[in-house]
User: Fold these one by one.
Assistant:
Number 1:
Amino acid sequence: KGMALPQRILFPPEKICMDWQQRQRAGAGLHNLGNTCFLNSVLQCLTYTPPLANYLLSWEHSQSCHQQGFCMMCIMEAHVNKVLHSSASAIQPWTVVNVLTRIGEHFQLGMQEDAHEFLHYTVDAMQRACLSGSSDLDISSQATTIVHQIFGGFLRSRVTCLSCRAVSDSYEAFLDVPLDVKTASSVTAALEDFVKPEQLDGENCFKCSKCDKMVATTKRFTIHHMPKVLTVYLKRFEDFTGRKISKVVEYPEYLDLWPYKSQTAGEPLLYALYAVLVHSGGSCHAGHYFCYTK
């Protein structure tokens, strides 16, 4: 048992190249158009994601795109080509800014916005663009777009009955992994907390189909299907107060995801750090975003 196989493959996985296909010098910077640092920093991280940039630099998407009106893939394709082919030291990212409310209707030009939220909406809009014209697809087939193959994975939630040890699995697609850093001082410690089994009893009991009654269980998340590019989001903003958890959270240049996956067999799964997006400021209501990319 496990996840169902896709009924259709929307983009051939062998066409995704994880290394730069053309040697690139650093492209243009992005002018701040009035509180657009959240947008600029996300765009730069996406621009320097090699498998995405390779595809967008080929102009392959726009050559076959039949979408009427707004298409996030066409917009990103135009933006990435402009940045990486420009001789200017910096450009104005109007291509993206002009469609801000199409990416997320609550975004407002001139307002300070959340970079993680903008990243989530942008990647989601790119995924929707790749699914355009492909209706009624099963979940596994939806995960075969180039966007989901690059950024997406699947989490497995395993519930184990503490009475009879029966196991129930469910799967959930993700485009990024949110990590709680309240008690963790490193990304690896936060990942260990993320996959730690949680005991559910009392009001949180589950109905076990084998015992046919409400029972205490454990619930554990693991990464079942790995993305090619892992996006980790550190939850530094407290839910209701907006206060920021400003402590140092260490992260390695090379991260082994093997301890956090569902299947325990296999070799180390090393991911190399290539981009970091930083918020500078004391709360979620103010501050400045910038990024480092390789």
Number 2:
Amino acid sequence: MLDRELLRMGNSALKAHLETAQKTGVFQLTGKGLTEFPEDLQKLTSNLRTIDLSNNKIEFLPPLIGKFSFLKSLVLNNNKLTALPEELCKLKKLETLHLNGNHLRQLPAAFGQLSALKTLSLSGNQLRTVPTQLCGLRHLDVVDLSKNQIQNVPDTVGELQAIELNLNQNQISQISVQISHCPRLKVLRLEENCLELSMLPQSILSDSQISLLAVEGNLFEIKKLRELEGYDKYMERFTATKKKFA
């Protein structure tokens, strides 16, 4: 079924998009009011490296998404997705997945099989916890879970391989001490949550790899953070990182 908006564009316009995609490996059709994933894309399962269908009205992804075995980047920001199919987890070459501004409450059970994934953006969804599936992703660099409904950060977070974790604008009031054991975590963003200072594990300061901790807009004054044991150790890491990039 072709969407009404695509019919308005005319088959020739879609055909032109498909022909371009066949040559470039990039299919981009944003802001066209699509309510469905264009089925005609399945003709290009072996060509496409990038699909961008942002700013549409797509409510679900069909199982055929699992056939795009060379796909490296999938961008579906600002659609109406409420769930993701398990077939998505077959995309072994997928490095970038942007799903900001949808209605997702959870990730597929097999999400940890996206073994090449480096960047994951799920800002502005309806997640209530940090998905445990993320801990199996060995190449994950950046995870954006800002603007969700996350209330606590569980023990499993200690296995997360990410370098940057963005949890801004959630409802977090508890964080597992295990977060200080994340082997590669350098940037932790926790701005505008519901954290009391007593709920922030001191080991984040004294005994972790974290060199940028952003905690403005919580239930304590930032100057109180500076009084905590381990703050000097954190500042050493912060300053060393700053020098490296100066």
